[in-house]
Amino acid sequence: MKKMIEPVAFFRSPFSTKFGIPRQSGIVEDLGGRIVFEPSFRNPDAVRGMEGFDYLWLVWGFSENPDTHNVTARPPLLGGNMQMGVFATRSSYRPNGLALSSVRIDRIDIDTPCGPVVHVLGADLMDGTPIYDIKPYLPYVDCHAGARGGFTDANPWQTLHVVVPEELASCFHSAELETLRKVLSLDPRPRYHDDASRVYGMPYSGKDIRFTVDGDVLRVVGVEDLQH
Predict the structure, then answer these.
(1) Do residues 93 and 63 make contact, with C-beta atoms less than 8 angstroms apart?
(2) How far apart are CA 10 and CA 37, in angstroms?
């Protein structure tokens, strides 16, 4: 009988929804998160030796997306208007809803009420995302210098200039604000949106971030604590 895969851990992230999450891991290098293991893996032996590595591969699931059998996808980098083969993209709508991300190890707390907890940087996972496997990143086999990047080579990501008024910037400590700026500069909106009067909302670190985009300028217009 085929064994069904089950999560070995869940991810804890400042993002409680998909909106605003960086579209690739590593783009926002300082974006922090935590890997919290399921009870059956809360054993220090499960992470023995991990401290000797700088990066991890996370195999995880798009838990908020339905599995699809589409053979094409519309990459945001191409404006969402051009179709490419689903297996030639990083589309989140995949036949089995599986994803692969490379994250940097920040630190490992061995003795916590939840067992070992791995703090990582640069993740593109939503809060509560199931993680199905974790493997170390090996530079001698996982890094391919000079490799081609397909359509991404000819279509570099265009970033926005982010304006945060001083009275709203004071809602965050300096490191948190800098990470938020980097996240917003990637333009969280769907690629087909272009309405300068529209106000968008993005939950981040327990706050609702309200912003508008006019041309290449993103302006934060409101910050409110989320109600739990």
Answers:
(1) no
(2) 6
| pTM of the model as a whole | 0.89
Query: Which helix (H) or strand (E) element contains residue 35?
Result: strand 32-37
Q: Edge to edge, what strands does the sheet with 207-214 contain? A: 161-163, 217-225, 207-214, 200-204
Q: Write out the two tokens for 146.
A: 């000079």
Using CA atoms, how far residue 138 sits from 50, 52, 113, in Å, is: 12, 11, 30
CA 169/CA 119 separation, integer angstroms: 25
Gap between the Cα atoms of 57 and 211, Å rounded = 33
Tell me the mean pLDDT per 10 residues along the chain, length 228: 84 92 92 97 97 98 78 81 88 88 97 96 96 97 92 85 96 93 92 84 94 95 85
Gap between the Cα atoms of 129 and 221, Å rounded: 29
* Integer Cα distance of 164 and 162 in angstroms: 7
C-alpha torsion 123→125→127→133, nearest 10: -90
Q: How far apart are CA 176 and CA 18, in angstroms?
A: 19
Cα–Cα dist 155/78, whole Å = 7
Please report, as a single letter, which amino acid is at residue 1. Answer: M
